[in-house]
Structure formats: C-alpha cells, structure tokens
Design goal:
This protein is an alpha/beta fold. The chain is built from ten helices and seven strands. It starts with a strand and ends in an 11-residue tail after the last helix.
Amino acid sequence: MIDLHTHSKVSDGTDSPSMLINKAMAAGITTLALTDHDTISGWEEARTALRPGMDLVLGAEISCQTEDGVSVHMLGLLFDPHFMPLIEVLDQTRDNRIGRMEKIIARMQGAGIEIEMADVLAQLSDGATLGRPHLADALIAKGVVKDREEAFSNLLHNNSAHYVSHFSPTPEAVIKLIKQAGGVAVIAHPYATLRGKIVRPTSFQSFVQAGLDGIEVSHRDQSVEERELLMAIVNEYDLIFTGSSDYHGEGKLNQLAEFTTNPAQWKKLEARADQRRVIRT
C-alpha cells in the first residue's frame, strides 16, 4: 500500500516521525510519504526510524494561495533539501504563521471566546510548524469544543468569521521551486469543498504550465463527484493521480492508508524526480 500524504507532530500531527513510521509499518504500508506543513525538520528522525519492508518518501505540504485568494496546498515530494530557494520559502511561510495566529486569536477574543496565544503555544511541540490544529487543541483544553472536528466545523474553517489568510506564494511559484529542486509536485485535495473555496478548473492550465505532476484525487474531503471531476482534469492534462490519507494522528478521523495510490501511478510519479531519492534500508 502506498500513502503519499501524512503528518507528524513536527507540524500539526500528534505522532512523532518515528511513531508514524512504526504505525505505518504495522498498517502494512509499503511506501509512505512524510509531508509536514512547510517544514522538513522531521526528515532525519523518520529516516532513522525506517526499517526493512517500507520505502520512505520525504517531502512537505507547502502552503500556497492563488491570485484570487484561494488557499492551496502543494505536496512537494523527493526534492533536494539543500535547494535553498525552496527552503527559504518554507521558512518564510512558517514565520508568518505566528502573526496570523495572533490575528485569529484576536478575532476569537472579540467574539467572546476565552483563548490566549500562550494557550496555543502550550500545544506546540518543540520546532513544530504552528497551525490551526494547535489552536483547535487549545480550544479543546479550554473546554470550548470537544475535538478537532468540532473546532474546524464550528470555528476554524476557511469561511469562518475568525479566519485569517497568511503569507503564501502562488501555486505556480511553488511548483516551479519544487521542480527546480528536482522533486515532483502534486496538488493536495484541490476540490475539498468542506474546507472552503476550491480551485477553479481553469486554474489547472497554469499549474500544468508551471510543471504540475499530479493531483490528489482520492481523499476523504472530496466527494465521489468531485473525484470524478478531478479525474477528467487528470485525463485532459495527462497528469498522475494519487490517493492519500492525509493522516494527522489523534484528533482527526483520517486513518493511515484509508486512500492509497496505485503502484503504476507512483512509479510514473517517482520517475519524474531528477534523482532516485526514495529511502530504503
């Protein structure tokens, strides 16, 4: 089984990279991608934890925003971690998350919700990428909501009055950086209507021109109808299609390998990297 989209506590997951590796192996996953938000700081621990029987794909889920304000997440896989232009964008995106969180908290306080920045930072692991899931965990600890699902459904979704966007490069710019770094670019859950505004079908042309390799089609936040529409785009532009869990650990319903990628599609995707960077023991 091939799962190309997972998170650890280095960003907004709840498992350490080594725990994630162990759980994936126990679940029978043969190829796993670690794609923490805007960071590669979990790579070394994941590499160290790897055991025979599973391949490790190192990557990141990179925050982007289209020119018309739609939030996009781009999975960069198999890229060179020493390509500094891409690493600098990841650093800048992470740094901006602090100011964004302060603005979200201010809006929530204005609505009468008792929450402080210190409450959120208390949920953050050392070196982790700050994100709304940490705010959700703080709201759980304060008794405002019972779990992350309720937090996002009621308070933290993209159409919420509390939502604040943050610095993000365009998807086209990120795709080009991933490709320049020798990796492959797959757009994550682009038609997940439950998350807010979605990418327009016409946007894919510029993504493909920038070098987009694939689309994450099978994902729990995309309906059957949305997956069919995405497959039509895959066929129109001769792209690769993937399926992934977007696993975060406890607090989200997503389970490892609940959606997987066809081995033939993975073989095509992996071949597009400029070097063979899959980690094997």
